[in-house]
Design goal:
Elements (H helix, E strand, L loop, with lengths): L3 E5 L3 H13 L3 E5 L2 H11 L3 E5 L7 H11 L4 E6 L4 H9 L4 E4 L4 H26 L4 H7 L4 E6 L4 E4 L1 H7 L3 H4 L4 H6 L13 H8 L3 E8 L5 E13 L2 E11 L1 H47 L7 H25 L7 E3 L1 H18 L3 E6 L6 E3 L1 H18 L5 E8 L5 E8 L6 H4 L17 H11 L3 E7 L3 E9 L9
Parallel strand pairs: 1-2, 1-3, 3-4, 4-5, 12-14
Antiparallel strand pairs: 6-7, 6-10, 8-9, 9-10, 11-13, 14-15, 15-17, 16-17
Helix pairs in contact: 11-12, 12-16, 13-14, 14-16
The structure holds adenosine-5'-triphosphate and magnesium ion (MG).
């Protein structure tokens, strides 16, 4: 069967090229340039998939998304935007968008989003059939291996649940069946409620229509996990007797958006910083040399002798900040060769051990000897790891401990480096900001250490993440691919 797509975008070139590409891929494509046009085609042809720009000349894409979902809830809608915008991504998902892609996107990104939409459509079709024919149940539930599924009666008791969900909850089937869903999934004695935690089930029972919401949970490592939850009513003799609840962990999609946003923020701050730092460096050097020369001419009992010293010291401090800024803004591409990661780690531990010992902090490193040599700019990776070590030392009280580990990932595609401390930890609010340039809680910090570190890691095709519990400690984890496309090692 030919799948229909409605493509809504006001840029004519982009619209035409994409429509052609989708046409070649076998889709039946309708196009619209405005919100009004889009709604009228939507009502005429009921497309299976809608690809829609968030910003349209006469309408807000999110409002259109809501309107379309209200009229035909089963439509799969993929939102398109010109820049990675975290808030829009979350809002789109909250309104049950299937996906969110950022322009410019490549063929793979688009295909992935379309595949997911088609898969969802086929699951929905089966769910509709399920509602009519209960014998389909086992098949549907078993096939939805990637989604968590529960069948829930109208009194909120669980009638059925699939294996992946049991596994995630760490309970057996007997411990789930017959119990209230809110008891099993939220450890509560009443159904979810409120704006933060709306209950999609009660909505579904009330309206007798499918409903959708997003819940944000904290996992045992204090990280935010986003769940997209959809409920589909089950009818018996014309009455809603229960619902099927599907939940999907959309955290990877959300985190992807966060990374995109961070990268674009870093790039723009980097360009700005490079310009400003260059301009400031010259006058600073003049101030520094002049104040040193004047001081040399003065006698130590001169009333301004100490003040001149102060000018020199403070100017030196400005130069340190400017030089950190220049480091941060350095647009130079890393020079990569193959290196032994455990040697790199030995070196940075050696370099920072004294500073740690001075505060009576123990440093321990454990490196697996299974890690093959990795393509990297050694100087840059050392700088990234030293930044993390210095932060850990600064955050840890005397008597504490820092552990550096490196090992090969289970699928042998990347190395995992962790730096863990027993320090003061980072609050949930601060965790969202620590990779931003200039975010610091230290009197003399520049707030550039982690911004530089995350820039270096992403230039190596890797990822950095943080887990932290206030007053218990912090753990930074780096995923570093063993080799990156386009690199000519050695
Ligand atoms: N291991 C850690 N434990 C607790 N807080 C940390 C840790 N690492 C980073 N932070 C927090 O993140 C903030 C930003 O760190 P970053 O390295 O970017 O800048 P900084 O350390 O403040 O300044 P600079 O690196 O220039 O000395 C720190 O001010 C601190 O609040
Ligand atoms: Mg730092």
């Amino acid at each position: 069967m030919e799948h229909t797509i409605l493509l809504v975008d006001d840029e004519p070139d982009f619209r035409e090229t994409l429509a052609k590409r989708l046409g070649n891929a076998g889709y039946h494509v309708y196009t619209a340039a405005t919100g009004t046009e889009a709604m009228s085609i939507f009502r005429d042809v009921s497309p299976m998939i809608v690809l829609m720009d968030v910003v349209l000349p006469d309408a807000d894409g999110l409002m259109l998304l809501q309107q379309m979902k209200e009229e035909i809830p089963d439509t799969e809608i993929i939102m398109i935007t010109g820049h990675g915008n975290m808030e829009l991504a979350v809002k789109s998902f909250q309104n049950d968008a299937t996906d969110f892609i950022t322009k410019p996107f490549d063929r793979d990104t688009l295909n992935l989003a379309l595949d997911r939409a088609l898969k969802k459509t086929s699951i929905r079709r089966r769910l509709h059939k399920y509602a009519e024919n209960k014998a389909m149940r086992d098949m549907v539930i078993k096939e939805l291996i990637n989604e968590d599924v529960m069948v829930i009666a109208s009194d909120y008791r669980i009638l059925d649940i699939n294996e992946p969900m049991l596994e995630k909850l760490g309970i057996t089937r007997d411990e789930a069946i017959g119990h209230f869903c809110y008891e099993i999934t939220h450890h509560q004695d009443h159904p979810c409620s409120g704006d933060d935690h709306p209950c999609p089930l009660s909505e579904c029972f009330k309206t007798q229509k499918p409903s959708q919401t997003t819940h944000v949970h904290l996992n045992h490592k204090n990280q935010e996990i986003y769940y997209s939850i959809s409920c589909y009513p089950i009818f018996e003799n014309g009455r809603v007797s229960g619902a099927i609840e599907l939940s999907r962990d959309i955290t990877p999609e959300i985190n992807n958006q966060k990374n995109l946003l961070q990268q674009s923020k870093l790039a723009s701050v980097g360009r700005l910083a490079a310009g400003v730092a260059h301009e400031i460096n010259n006058p600073l050097t003049t101030i520094l040399t002049t104040s040193m020369l004047i001081r040399e001419e003065m006698k130590p009992d001169d009333p301004y002798y100490e003040d001149m010293g102060l000018i020199t010291r403070e100017t030196l401090r400005c130069r340190r900040i400017v030089s950190a800024l220049l480091d941060f803004a350095r647009q130079s591409q890393p020079v990569k060769k193959k290196h032994n990661l455990s040697h790199v780690i030995d070196e940075i531990v050696l370099l920072t051990r004294k500073q740690a010992a001075f505060k009576d902090i123990g440093v321990e490193s454990v490196c697996s000897d299974k890690i093959p040599r990795i393509v990297m700019d050694k100087g840059q990776i050392e700088q990234a790891l030293i930044n993390l070590m210095l932060n850990a030392i600064e955050a840890t009280a005397p008597g504490g401990r820092i552990t550096v580990c490196a090992r090969l990932s289970a699928d042998q595609t990347h190395a995992e480096i962790t730096i863990q401390d027993t320090g003061c930890g980072i609050s949930k609010e601060a965790q969202d900001k620590i990779f931003d340039p200039f975010f610091t809680t230290k009197e003399n910090g520049t707030g550039l250490g982690l911004a530089i570190t995350s820039g270096i890691i992403s230039q190596h095709g890797g990822r950095i993440s943080v887990e932290s519990l206030p007053n218990q400690g912090t753990r930074f984890a780096i995923h570093l691919p063993l080799s990156q496309d386009g690199n000519h090692a050695e």
